[in-house]
Amino acid sequence: MKKLIVCLLVFCLLLAGCTPENSSSLSDESEKLTYKNSSVSGVWLSFSEINSMLESEAGFKAEFDKVIENCQALKIGEIYVHIRAFCDSLFQSDYFPLINNAKNIDFDPFQYIIDACHTSGIKVHAWINPYRVLTSSSDKEALDHESPAYKWLSDESTENDKNVCCFDGIYLNPAEPEVRELVINGIREVLSKYEVDGIHFDDYFYPTTEPEFDSASYEKYASETENPLSLADWRRANVNALISGCYTAVKFYGKDIAFTVSPMASIEKNYNELYADVKTWVESGCLDAVIPQLYFGFDYPDREFCFDNLLDEWIELSKVNTEVELKIGLAPYKIGTDSEADREEWNTSEDIIARQAEICYKNGSVSGYVFFSYSSLFSDKELNTKQREKLNNITNFYR
Question: The domain 2-128+175-204+235-398 belongs to what CATH superfamily?
Answer without folding.
Answer: Glycosidases (3.20.20.80)
